[in-house]
Amino acid sequence: MSSTTNTTTIGTIGAPSRRNTELAMLVFAVLIPVFAYVNVGLAKDGSVPAGVLGYSLGLGLLAGVAHLVVRKWAPYADPLMLPIATLLNGLGLIFIWRLDQEPSLGKAMAPNQLMWSTLGVAFFLAILIFLKDHRVLQRYTYISMVVALILLVAPVFFPGVNGAKIWITIPGLGSLQPGEFAKIIIAIFFAGYLMVKRDALALASRRFMGLYLPRGRDLGPILVIWALSLMILVFETDLGTSLLFFGLFVVMLYVATERTSWIVFGLLLSAGGAVAVATFESHVQTRVHNWLNPLELSNGGVTETAQAMYSFGSGGILGSGLGQGYSRLILGIAPKSDYILATVGEEVGLAGLMAILLLYGLLIERGIRTALAARDPFGKLLSIGLSGAFALQVFVVAGGVTGLIPLTGMTMPFLAQGGSSVIANWALVAILLRISDTARRPAPAPAPSTDAEMTQVVRP
Amino acid sequence: MNKPLRRVAIFCGLLVLALLVRVNWVQFVQGDALKNDPHNRRVAIERYSTPRGNIIVDGKAITGSTTTDSGDFKYKRTYKNGKMWAPVTGYASQAFDANQLEKLNDGILSGTDDRLFFSRTVDMFTGGKQKGGNVVTTLDAKAQKAAYDGLGTQKGAVAAINPETGAILALASTPSYDPSTFAGMSNKDAEAYNALQKKSDPDEPMLNRALRQTYPPGSTFKVVTASAALENGLYHDVNAKTDSPLPYTLPDTSGLPLKNEGNIPCKDASLREALRWSCNTVFGKISADLGNKKMKAEAEKFGFNDPGINTPVRASESIYPTDNRPQNAMAGIGQASNRATPLQMAMVASAVANGGKLMKPYMVDQLVAPNLNVVQQHTPQEMSRPLSPENAQKVQSIMETVVKEGTGTSAQIPGVTVGGKTGTAQHGENNKDNPYAWFISYAKTDKGTPVAVAVVIEGSDTLRDDIAGGKLAAPIAKRVMQAVLEGEK
């Protein structure tokens, strides 16, 4: 199996499969949320919660099956991604269940979330089993463009929820947030398109004021798609996702063309876009205002932003302990989704919050590593697109909730309540795992050939 | 493609780093400020999560705690005879924060004070719940009751001090309020609170008149003026004739007369006779002769113009003004811009009674930890010496004449030496509002001087003459003094 001769590609020098490492870490990834679950129960009513056995078995089973499938169908895949995703998802379930204990926050959501997580893992398994090679996705470049557009346009025809039109409701099934899926599909489209056009984009360009401007026919389609998706998102008042798409677009273009000018171009465009949107959208102005004055009182009461800040501050370094915080003071439905980090910060403190942020950092790092290791440009572009989108999403949500940047309203991947988000992120991890499997798989042993003999005879 | 990939990796690393820096900033650097922000509801939840310690008078708690089943807050404050004690305790409300002693000693009462660290740590190990400590006051329940009952339905205030220590014995203010009515946070509590606000009740029941309301002190201020005359050597003998014309014209005016109340013998009257009859002409002239500076200096020795009289509840600043000559003459008889709190006037009486030594008034004797260890013990402190002992004797002697055969006869207590001074302060433009009736006094026995008291009643009827103070306020002062004396026996 070992191929010690190949030194040209990262990670292929006799790469061990690392499946046992993954298994060992999965044990932790299951045990930690189980302990957390017991902890919440003990803190809330002094007894071990009744569901703990079912929960441990369920989470253990999900992780176990996922592990076996990875072992069988993606044996060389990155060993860290599955444990991190499992841990984040498991902790997310605990935090949602913990918030379910607060009657003021509405009906219980943890059981649904568990169902969606199961579906997410099933989807993850399906992708690993049926997607033998990620390059297959390349064939669907334009189809994915169409699908992404449809997904993005669809919510316009459904009623908005809490001011944002980002949902489509399927009778009897509940609602779906297509933006989460569009994130992956548009990355596929960008990767496929840029892989084909990257040389043209990078080289056949005119220099204009120090920037390389590509020809319209190369840039055209992608610019149109991007502009369309942005516009749709603005009409749906889903700024987080538009920011995400924009970042995704710039990062992938930059990686594909290797031209720094794209970054400059992207920053200029985003600055212009931000100013333009901020002048037209009143709710953007409100958010910027809340960001600049987080503790301001409105109508004599404390705002949601201030409540989140108080949650973080009251958590301090070590936190109040699971189940012993008062993040329920952030009213509404947001505590379980957008604001779930506030509960994390309050109950497990700065230490716990940093640990969770580092888990995200690690997951992103593994994704980018996959991009570096990938041997085909499509794989590189797709994995950097997916990891970049993931990184931006984490940054926009965590930055928004902690007051680093204005709040834009997106879900914290894996942690926050929301079916679409969980499923989409499991799919995202599955695709990354598939690419990393391909990347880390040892190169097939060279065919016995006289050309590869140790000593070659120079033939005449 | 790897070079841009590495750069993107660095960029993503920076994003995560920025988040880490931010959460450190919020949770570590700003953490304590956010945690203790008054708008952070956790502060209140914490405060009401355990029974609050009590405020103690004469060894008995005048406050209590009860459990509530509504909302975040587990315990609610209760008050025993809340209306009577409100000027002492202040209030602690789940919805409306706290004030006065409840607020100032919140750390001790709620058990979060650093000085209770030891007791808290023990609780933590023994598994006991955090408990609040107690605040032991100097108040005298009988004197307080006498003061509160004496005021009755009239609008006014009483402050009584032990001249020898400065310990506050009574602090009553009417109309009053019951802090129990809005200790919780239901709509009923909010209604009760709003009904007590100035805009719905012009009588301002929540105003602590004994400490926080200043009035023109009227003739009671003549005690200060007499002290100033003696201290500055303007007169030496309280029985010698003064150089006082009748009628007396205010200085620097074109013949504006300073009138006396009624036809009283004030021409060249001695200090004793002048105080006995409450001669405006004599004391107005003394003030004018001494000048604004000297008058102000003496008033300040008694505690005027001091914005920081903390008992520990801060008393409003009493004012002896910097002013021109005619106004200064008026200020010398307790009119014009002269303003004093009832506590201030009780301090005047107590300094005279205590041989010229003014003790710092205080009402918290001890702060006690839940395990009954004394956390803090107040020791009486001298604040200033407005009078020499000899001059104090002289002022005492003329104040005693006022009660024996002057305007203050209604404060006489058999077998006890009582010194006092009545006052009726004109009020309102052109004197058209009801005047304030004042009385300040002290009581002395062969064992010491246990009480000095000031009573003010806001225009309860139309009596305008100087007798008003004697008629309305003096009997209340008498009851308070009697209550204290009975306790002494």
TrEMBL record, chain A:
InterPro entries (alphabetical): FtsW/RodA
Transmembrane spans: 23-40, 52-70, 82-99, 114-131, 140-161, 181-196, 217-235, 241-257, 262-280, 339-363, 384-408, 414-433
Keywords: Cell cycle, Cell division, Cell shape, Membrane, Transmembrane, Transmembrane helix
Tagged with keyword Transmembrane: yes
Any one annotated GO CC term: cell division site
Keyword Transmembrane belongs to the record: yes
Main location: membrane
Region (Disordered): 440-460
Membrane topology summary: Multi-pass membrane protein
A GO molecular-function descriptor: lipid-linked peptidoglycan transporter activity
Cellular localisation: Membrane
GO biological process terms held by the UniProt record: cell division; regulation of cell shape
Name of the protein in its database record: Cell division protein FtsW
UniProt organism field: Streptomyces angustmyceticus
TrEMBL record, chain B:
Record-annotated Penicillin-binding protein transpeptidase domain positions: 156-482
Listed Gene3D superfamilies: DD-peptidase/beta-lactamase superfamily (3.40.710.10), Penicillin-binding protein 2a (Domain 2) (3.90.1310.10)
InterPro entries: Beta-lactam/transpept, Beta-lactam/transpept-like, PBPA_dimer, PCN-bd_Tpept
GO biological process, one term: cell wall organization
SUPFAM superfamilies linked to this entry: beta-lactamase/transpeptidase-like (SSF56601)
GO MF terms, alphabetically ordered: penicillin binding; peptidoglycan L,D-transpeptidase activity
Source organism, top-level taxon: Bacteria
Residue stretches making up the Penicillin binding protein A dimerisation domain: 52-135
Pfam families: PBP_dimer_2, Transpeptidase
GO cellular component labels: plasma membrane
PANTHER family to which the protein is assigned, alphabetical: PENICILLIN-BINDING PROTEIN 4B (PTHR30627:SF24), PEPTIDOGLYCAN D,D-TRANSPEPTIDASE (PTHR30627)
Protein name, as recorded: Penicillin-binding protein
Lineage start: Bacteria, Bacillati, Actinomycetota, Actinomycetes, Kitasatosporales
